[in-house]
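Second attempt. The first submission of Histidine ammonia-lyase had a stray character pasted in from the spreadsheet, which I only caught after the job came back as garbage. Lesson logged: always re-copy from the clean sequence file. Corrected sequence (519 aa) follows.
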Amino acid sequence: MSIEPDRSGSVVVGTGPVSARDVVRVARDGVAAVVSEQALAAVEESRARIEALAANPGPVYGVSTGFGALAVRLIPPASRRQLQRSLIRSHAAGSGAEVEREVVRALMLLRLSTLATGRTGVRPVVVRTVAALLTAGITPVVYEYGSLGCSGDLAPLAHVGLAVIGEGAVRDADGELRPAAEAMAAAGIAPVELAEKEGLALINGTDGMLGMLVLACHDLRALLRLADVTASMSVEGLLGTDKVFAADLQALRPQPGQAIAAANMMRVLANSPIVAGHATPDCTVVQDAYSLRCAPQVAGAARDTLDHAERVAGHELASAVDNPVVTLDGRVESNGNFHGAPVAYVVDFLAIVVADVASMSERRTDRFLDKARNHGLPPFLAHDPGVDSGHMIAQYTQAAIVSDLKRLAAPASVDSIPSSAMQEDHVSMGWSAARKLRRALDGLTRVLAIEALTAARGLDLRAPRTAAPATAAVVATLRTAVPGPGPDRYLAPEIEAAVRLAASGALLAAAESVTGPLG
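This time the job returned cleanly.
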């Protein structure tokens, strides 16, 4: 896929922490990155300190010693540039499938942000080169496996470092696989010959897991709004009540996310003839099932967890993660800030949230298909039950995804496999946690899309009673790609069409065209 670099509205790095919004823009929209002159001056100043230490006969980690368990070995001055090249080459040891372009661009921007703080001791040419690669749309090939989430995302960042020195493979702005040196020459970018500490500074950060966290928070925020919409469609189609979402009832338990979710559902269900039609004294349903009645409690708790994850991401975006680091007063000190625990924990929390929101969505879909619980709809919403199976197997697909999500919710951050001859004897597995969260978010999107598809069919089958304006808008959007009820059709393409509408934001936008922006 060709993605032309966007040089308009460039993200300026080095005037403060990079924002989550800027990460998304650079990662997904191809926006260029520009380093401020103020940042370059700070980089130049801290570099002078590293060069002074390099001339000193005493050992300084990463400048005049080996790495990890080899830190006890003093490296002679003549070999120190080779030391940095060797570090990048040896640590570029990834394996597996290529990591997505947006993830690599995010981690490049975040590493650039740290380099531009002046706390890593690199020369300005290194900072400019990383920025130039981003701006030219050149994306180093990074692989799925290789990071333990401690000492930073070493292997993924080393593959980026390999491109900085003109080695390894990259994807150019058109997505074509090319040798790094060739793509850089075509873009007018010269490879860097690394000096003391620069190889280490390129790889010693949590940028990969953080980039994936930022992208995940962005996506989950929208999916939780969509979950409120699909839950509302199910409440309506299953003849549930909206009274339980009233603000005064929610205020009795002042969880902030819960109040937002309930308010969203009230707005989506506003002016529903279906809801009004059975809200009469002769209605025999006293309470709705938990998957309907408690939807705001689950989606609300998910929001509160997401708020916490975004706070952690914000702290990390304001960080300068490297080891050793050049302090503001000019000291060069070893530290443990590269440990990915803060990011790993919240990434795992979000995977739990995703699994539970999806699980509740699947339960609502299942209620639509059960004649004993769907209040008068045909079994499986089938056109001619027995001849037709309706959405029976769509729920199987949902169930299979939810089962996978429950496995993906098992935390990666509780695992640790010691490495580097026991020097790195506790690691975060934050990269692995973030990788599985990306898969989980795809699963949640699919589960919500199937709920929307099934609920829309259920609402159509309630005719001549009509849906609320907001839910009707969602049904109408689905009907642009998927026909309404009828005899069985090839279902997989219809599910994929619904997934595309969910992933693109079209279903949420349809509801919000009536309600205004949801919380």
